[in-house]
Structure formats: structure tokens, C-alpha cells
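C-alpha cells for Chaperone protein HtpG. Go.
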Amino acid sequence: MKNKNKKVHVFKSEVKELLHLMIHSLYSNKEIFLRELISNSSDAIEKLRFEKLYNPEKYTKKVYVPKIQISIKKTENQIVISDNGIGMTEKEVINNLGTIAKSGTKSFLNQMKNIENKEKNEFIGQFGVGFYSAFIVSEKVSVYTKHASEKTESGILWISEGKGEYSIEEFATQEHGTKIVLSLKTSEQEFLESWKIKQIIKKYSDHISIPIEIDNYDKKTQTISWEKINEAKSLWTQNKNKITKKDYQEFYKYITHDSEKPLTWSHNTVEGNQEYTSLLYIPKKATWDMWHRENKHGLKLYVKHIFIMDEATQFLPNYLRFVKGIIDSQDLPLNISREILQDSTITNVLRKTLTKRILKILNTLSLNKSKKYQKFWNIFGLVIKEGLAEDSENQKNIADLLRFSSIQTESIEQTLSLKKYVNNMVKGQNKIYFLTSDSYQSALNSPHLEIFKEKKIDVLLLSDRIDEWMMNYLTDFNNIKFQSVSKADDSLKELISNENKPDDKNIFDDFIKKTKKILTNKVKDVRITYRLKSTPSIVLTDTNDMSTQMAKIFSSAGQPVPQIKYILEINPTHPLVKKIQKIENESEFSNWINILFEQSVLAEKGTLENPHIFINRINTLLLK
């Protein structure tokens, strides 16, 4: 007889795609299904604890003893995972189990197709779709759930075989929470062994603060007893001396769903005006969605050891969004909301303190002779650079963490610190020189560097998209000013020798006057330079004008860009310039000067406003 309440729904297309990946692509680490389902149960219990504190009138006042229980039913080929957490309403069941209600879904699925199985296992948890991992080992999944605020005597039963549709119907119950019944595939019998389940829980979930119990059936007495498997103690509340390195690493994996161990961590308890405990982790690699605008980040917030919220962004600036961990405050009220948290004085104090602590952790890591910091920089360097604009209070500490490529490092890998650059400055050098460009290779081969290479003066080569914007905030380091080598600057004069300069400084006056007349509307100035060796000319922007690289950034963002009038600097020792200087025919001279200017602009910008005219000039001269 058919159940009249039963409704059949079709999965959203992105869920179908995800289920296909789960069932057909993931074989390397099937046991993650248990980690994810226990993690979901833990979250449901934490949510109910919070709701009982924040909205007590909605929930029963009877004593609440949270627990997660696992039953193995060998004859039925089933594993049952149940919790007495907050449960779900029918609407929540449809939203949570029938749809991936998270932005960036398509991007996530595309990444899942192109990565190794080991990394897919890790992404499952990070993306928040861990429930679907149940289908890796199950041919059918049944979810019995009832929301803790429901006053009815029925709950919702969700059933699916993971083949494109699911059914929903009511079932009779008086208990709130969620029970998941996994009907295992015949190939997954190993998960029906009690020792196997205990092993997995010890591996992944030992530090969950909620008791996880497994049933033991006594054949003699024909009774069932429950055995607690995990420690069920909040790791951060324990004595640091008794916590092992492995304990910290496993707890990190639990809160982040990361398969990798963390790079480093800091466990700290503060007493006094502010009482709190923090456990902060620096990951080895970035989450897949770190650059998404909707990226969720932040610390898990506990108040007096009670979970309050996930992803509390108020305790960290955005440029430290890669940091994972928990903060447990003794001073915040238990019913604090995100809105109140935003404006809380305690929050602001904690934010400042935690920011300084993280920067100190990174600084300590950078002084370590191991390659850990370099690995960190290669992954998170771009995010750290954002801090120069976001966090003026800690600019000096952030600057100490920066790493760069340069002429002398001879590598695209950014390894040079500002402190080391300053220590290596040549006699008479009073500025830190840098060059921004679209790529490392174009920066390395820029004509702007010719004199610096000859004089062995190092120049920082900045080719990350954020660099030009960053340099607007990084104006000095230890009171030494930064100077772009593509901008006009008098500090170079003292560094350039007078060996190649003629005694008569006026011999180029007529040449410069004629050149200025030809380029009158195109340039800001024309001058002689001795900074070039193998290049006839370059263009510079004036000290206070927008740089070429900044103009490119504005243009690519669709922003209006003011016209840049360059300063043309000409190398009088170059054979081509000497040849042009002797040309008497005005038309031919004008053609050469324009070519000189246009090729300099092409080298600087990579483009010309009208390349056709430039090509015609060259063709005309080639024919002669």
C-alpha cells in the first residue's frame, strides 16, 4: 500500500553531478563518509545547545544530555548513525539534502573533475557537502529527522539511492534529532566490523567534545550496552603539556576537513582583563575558494566552552582569512549575535591581539632556517600583501614578512626579504628600487634595469597583479624610501658615473629641441640619459603621475584612465641615436624620432594606440 504522504523529488542538476562524482570517482579513502556524518551530527548538537541558550522559550526545558550513537546491524547490512541534535524541518531537509545552496558550486565541481582522488576527499568536507559522501559506500541512504522546536509527534523521512531522485514522507516519532541509516553496498562489508568503526573514529573524531558511543550486543544476556569511543574533551581546554603533536594535528583536520597536517599552530591562554583561549593554525595550502568573494572564513567561536558560531570573521582581518582555529572567550555573553559581535569592545581587543599573535607566529616561522616559511609564502603571499592596505597599524610587521624576486636572486620564486635587500645595498644607495610589470620575464628584461645591472644595484621585480596597488601603501621600510625605476627620479644621478658624458654638455641641445618640437603633444619632456647601455631610448612617467602598470589595472577593470604623457629619455651613446642626429632631411628625421618614441612606448606598455602607423613608418624606412 502506498504512503499518501510520500512525495518524490528530483535532485537539482548540480547535486546529480556531485553524486556521480562521489559514487564513481572516489575510491582512495572511503572511510571519510563516517568522519563527515559524525561531523554533521556534532554540528547539529552544537546548534541545539546554542538555540537553547539564545531562544529557550522554543525548546523543552528537560535536562539535555547530548550524544552521538552508532549501531551496526550485520544481518540487515546497515550502519545507523544517530544524534539528539537540532534536527531538520521538511523545508530544511529539501534545502540541505536536495540542493547545494552554496555559491561557487560550478567552480567546485569543475575543480573536482580535475584533481586527484586524495584531494577530492579533502574538498568534500571543505565545501560542506560531506553528507553526500555516504553514497560512496551505500546503495541507499535513509534520513529520519525531527526539528527540536517541532511540537508534533511526527518527523520527516528522506530516502534516496543517489540516482537522481529522493522521496520525503512523514514518520511517527516523539524524539528530536537525526538518524541516518546506511544500507551498504555488498562490496563494503568491512564497515560492519566494530573494530573498523572504532579505528576510524579514533583517527578522525577523537577530540569531538560530544560523546560518540557504539553499541555492544551481549549474546548471553541478550542486552545492548553503549561504549564511549572518543575522548570527548575539548582539546583547547586541556593542559598544553599533555597534548601531543599528533593531537593538535588531528584536531586541525577535524575542524577544517583538511587531509594535510597544518604548517604550524599556536595554543595560548590569556588571563586578566580579557580571559580567553585561542588555538590558531596556519595551513599548508589554500582552500579551493580562498579567492571567491563569498568565501567563508573566520574562527570557531566558543563562549565558556559552549559553541556559539562557525566562521566568526570579526576576530581576524580579511588578509588573514587563511588562518583556521578556535577562540573560547570567558567575557562575551552566551547569547551574543553576529551584529552585536561586530560592535563589541571585547571583540575589537581580541581582534587586535589575535592579529598580532598570528603575525608573530609567521615572523617566527620566517626566521626558522627550514623551508616552511617559503612554502607558506608561495601559497599565501598574495593574501599577506593585501594587509599593507588593510592594516596600517601592523604595516611594519607585515613588511617584514614580504618576499620578492629581484635582479640578483635570479629566480621567479620570491625569496628576498626587505631586511636582506637593505643589508645588501651598495655604497651611496639611499632608496629601495623596484619595477612593476605584467610578468617576471618582462620585468627582468626591461631596459630600465640596464644601469642597475651594470652597477650591481639590486632591483625588486614585482609581477603579481596586486603589486602596483600594494606599492601605493608601502612607501618606506626602516625609513628608506621606495623608488620605481620606471619613474623619473634624481637619486639615480649620483649612482651614474660621468665616464661616458661628453665635456660639452650643450652638444645635444639642438637635437633635443628638434625632438621636443616633433613630439610636442605626445610627451611631457625629452632629455638625455646615461642610464641606458644597449637601448636607444626609454619612456618614464613623472614622479606624481599614474604609472603604466596602474593604468593597465584601471583599464582591465573597466575604469577610465587619464592620458599618460611620458618623459622620453634618449641614450646619446647609442649608434642609432648618433645616426639620427646626423639626418638633415626633416621628414626622415621626424619619422625616426617618432619611431624612437613609439618603440619606447611599445616596450613600456606592450601595446600602441595605433600600431598601423608605427608599421608604416618602419616600412618606409626599410624601403630606403
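Residues 101-105, 120-128 have pLDDT under 50 and may be disordered.
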